Amino acid sequence: MDSQPRQALVRRVTGLARSTPGRLSLIILVLAIASLASGALTTWSVNRQEQALEDLATRSEPLAHAAQEVYRALQDADATAASAFLSGGLEPPQLRDRYEADIAQAQAALSVATASSPDLTATLAAQLPVYTGLIETARTNNRQGFPVGAAYLREASGLMRTELLPSAQELYRAETDRVVSAQHEANFPWGSMSVALAFVIALVLTQRYLTRKTNRLLNIGLLIATGAAGLSLLWATTVSVLVINDVADSRTASEKVDVLAQARIATLTARGEETLTLVARGAGQAYEKNFVEVSEKLEGQLEQAKRLDNTEAVDQAMRHFRQWQQVHQRIREADDAGQYNDAVALIDNPYFDSLDQDLVRAIGEARQDFSDEVATVSYT
């Protein structure tokens, strides 16, 4: 019994669609639905880009920096502990202060990164107290003149290299990948722009259809709707293109930050190898080999940073790196000639610290460039 009313309704709709007024009614209905869908999709796409940029500026990049700071602080703490050990007896206060500051900075950065990657920070949180305990044992024995202190220092450094630093590196890579993912989220919204363009084309075709059927050149309502849709499409496209350009620039800036961060880590790694070579007292060939390999890698990273953006800080970093390498050659010559005390005295040279400060400044400038690029486009 219900089939007859349904069939009657179908016949009425079909008949309506065959008449000009009926077709116009259906066209208006379809255009109204398309207008709502196009507007909603365009708004969603723009908001999605805005959210991606906000996440990039306020979450992804700061977390990546915190992860990099964990690695840097741990590496510097290890190098500083080894340098302090060379002094024999009671280490210089400035080295002790630097070591303690590094551990505090690593713990602070670790607490920030834990909120995002608790699984990746578990090893760091568990092993860092073990490392500091070994360092304290090494310090105590070294202060009393016991040779076993060097063994504890090597054990601590081994823990740093095999457990802490690999975990910190994994954390840094995970957070860096999040930066890349956030940048991809801000890509051009082809889907929504295609829908908006299709809606504008549909309005134009409808205008032509009405012109043929009514012999009226223009329909004011459709003309206004077409103009509004066209302006909306132009605005959304312009904003999206600006976002894409700034995201592209931010990729360059984030690449520069990454290269400089890796260069600073390599600097601290090389410093640790250089110091441990002397701590080993004639048995540090493996450390010296590592120093040479890391130094070659560091030089390549500095060259890459110069290609990306040859700032004054990067240029000075390269100059101080080469001066440090020259002093290192003198250290090796003195140590190999049996002049151990002279070699230890040469460790305390200004070029390593100058290189480190150059890289700190360069990283700060690159991060500022990144923030400026992300903040350029405003949707308000």
Secondary structure topology:
Elements: H1 3-18, H2 20-86, H3 93-114, H4 118-143, H5 148-185, H6 190-214, H7 220-279, H8 285-308, H9 312-336, H10 340-347, H11 350-375
Helix pairs in contact: 1-2, 2-3, 2-5, 2-6, 2-7, 2-11, 3-4, 4-5, 5-7, 6-7, 7-8, 7-11, 8-9, 9-10, 9-11
Walk me through what this model shows.
The protein is mainly α and 380 residues long. The chain has one domain. Helices cover 89% and strands 0% of the residues. It contains 11 helices and no strands. The chain has helices at 3-18, 20-86, 93-114, 118-143, 148-185, 190-214, 220-279, 285-308, 312-336, 340-347, 350-375. Helix 6 runs antiparallel to helix 7. The two termini are 58 Å apart. The model has no long low-confidence stretch (mean pLDDT 81). The chain crosses the membrane at residues 188-205, 217-244. This is Chemotaxis methyl-accepting receptor HlyB-like 4HB MCP domain-containing protein. It comes from Lentzea aerocolonigenes (Lechevalieria aerocolonigenes).
Q: Outline, from the CA principal axes?
A: elongated
Number of helices: 11
Strand share of the residues?
under 5%
- Derived structural class: mainly alpha
Rg, please?
32 Å
Question: Considering DSSP H and I runs of 4 or more, what fraction of the residues is helical?
Answer: over 70%
What's the oligomerization state? single chain
**How far do the termini sit from each other?**
58 Å
Largest sheet: number of strands, sense, barrel closure: none
How many β-strand stretches? Answer: 0
Low-confidence stretches: none
Order of helical and strand elements: HHHHHHHHHHH
Protein name: Chemotaxis methyl-accepting receptor HlyB-like 4HB MCP domain-containing protein
Organism: Lentzea aerocolonigenes (Lechevalieria aerocolonigenes)
Transmembrane segments: 188-205, 217-244
Keywords: Membrane, Transmembrane, Transmembrane helix
